[in-house]
Amino acid sequence: MIRYFVEDVEFQVPFPQKTRRWLNTVALAEGFQIAELNYIFCSDEYLHKINVEYLEHDTYTDIITFDNSEEEKIISGDIFVSVERVEDNARSLNVIFQDELARVMVHGVLHLAGYLDETDEEEENMRRLESHYLLTRI
């Protein structure tokens, strides 16, 4: 089950049902099943506070993913997304907001499927997977 929540911003996920189907398809393609996945869309400041409090990073970011899974191959987690950061990134990358939002959303699913992006090689692989799955959007 994929659910969407909003904290301190006005926001609606574009095409929420299609997005749920797409993200479930991505998880299945990676050998996972989504049990419970919560997307919490929020402001830069809201996500910054989470970044400082839980990760001890005093930086702004577009996404923070918390893995709540207790079983192998089952995705359960909370994904916080800064709508403001996604908007800024879309502008700076010269892409439409919906495409950047989809990239960030699938990025979180890929983290929950075990992919990291801490090294240059891992980051390159993550970007390749994001691009691949963006092409599969319904």
From TrEMBL:
Provide a GO biological process annotation. rRNA processing
The record ties this protein, via InterPro entries, to: MetalPrtase_cat_dom_sf_prd, YbeY, YbeY_CS
Molecular-function GO terms, alphabetical: metalloendopeptidase activity; RNA endonuclease activity; zinc ion binding
What name does UniProt use for this protein? Endoribonuclease YbeY
The beginning of the lineage is: Bacteria, Pseudomonadati, Bacteroidota, Cytophagia, Cytophagales
> Record's NCBIfam families?
rRNA maturation RNase YbeY
SUPFAM superfamilies found in the cross-reference section: Metalloproteases ('zincins'), catalytic domain
What does the record give as cofactor? Zn(2+)
Q: What does this protein do?
A: Single strand-specific metallo-endoribonuclease involved in late-stage 70S ribosome quality control and in maturation of the 3' terminus of the 16S rRNA.
Say yes or no: keyword ATP-binding present.
no
Gene3D superfamilies from the UniProt entry: Metalloproteases ('zincins'), catalytic domain
Q: Which UniProt keywords are listed? A: Cytoplasm, Endonuclease, Hydrolase, Metal-binding, Nuclease, Ribosome biogenesis, rRNA processing, Zinc
Assigned EC number: 3.1.-.-
Q: Which family does it belong to?
A: Belongs to the endoribonuclease YbeY family.
Which note does the record give on the cofactor?
Binds 1 zinc ion.
Per UniProt, subcellular location reads as:
Cytoplasm
Q: Which organism is it from?
A: Siphonobacter curvatus
